Amino acid sequence: MSSGLEMPPFAVVAKALRKTTEHLAAEVVQSSASPPDWSELEWAIARSAAAMQGMSALLANNLSWDGPPTWRAFLAEQREQSVLRDARIGALLAQIDAAARERGVACIALKGAALRTLDLYRRGERPMGDVDLLVANGDLNAIAAAMADIDYVEAGSTQRHRKYEPRRKVVPHGFGEHIDNPLRIEVHTAIAEPLPVRKVDITERLKRSSAQPGVNNYPDLVSLLLHLLLHAAGNVRAHALRQVQLHDIAMVAGLLYEREWSALFEQHHANESPWWLFPPLALTARYYPTHVPQEVVRAARAACPRVLRLATDRQSLTDVSWSNLRIHAFPGIEWSRTPLDALR
To answer: Is the pTM of this model over 0.90?
Structure first.
């Protein structure tokens, strides 16, 4: 935000963030003929909303109106930086592929890295803070060696992944997309999300029996969409969703045929149908109404537990994303499958 602005009350900021987030979410899909009539504060917050939601470059490419000079300059700079960063991402993926081949390790490029191969976005439109890879548990040492070969070092690990960062440290740019921001690599041996406590694991669905050393794609579009939906579901639960995730889902959904939608609903975990599909599909359909077939949304809704279904019906992007400034005492409690889950 502009340094000349005094910090307004929390309620004013929260209201402006909701207002700008929801307006820009609609503008990405169908741009208005003229800019919104916003105050200086609202335009400043709109820049933050666009960056938080991962939509700056898409807005730069799709808006029919210009807005004030500060807004135009922000979008132009973000588009330029995103294109530069996109070239870096492409070069890094090529390095990973070559190093993995040399080490004889097969890996699957996940989410944003996989979307690049489908040409759903123009250069730089889809931001990426890291490259996600899925490898077999027995290949962790080999992929670590491949990371060292491209001058990446381990920077920590969690239950979800091992994180690698460039050996050469740089000071990250604080706001939005920038060529100098480091590109991390996250190596996963499983793809699972706690919803909210018990994990939904889709790892077996993503594995390729024909995977070759180097970087591989998902087995099929259904696997890619399944992963995008599960990741979005986890972020909806945590109130950490970004609009770019819904955009990803909408773009891939537009490629599916009826038989592929049927295959999506055949995915079971722990003898349960995919009850968690409804929130991310419903949100996507709400903001991208022509991309997800209504019969698909109805089928997902029918499989969704009542409490979660009712919560989803009234939630907006702002409610379940970083644009919601309010901290909930029990975020995601509506995802609980049993009273015991709610207490854990």
So the answer is: yes
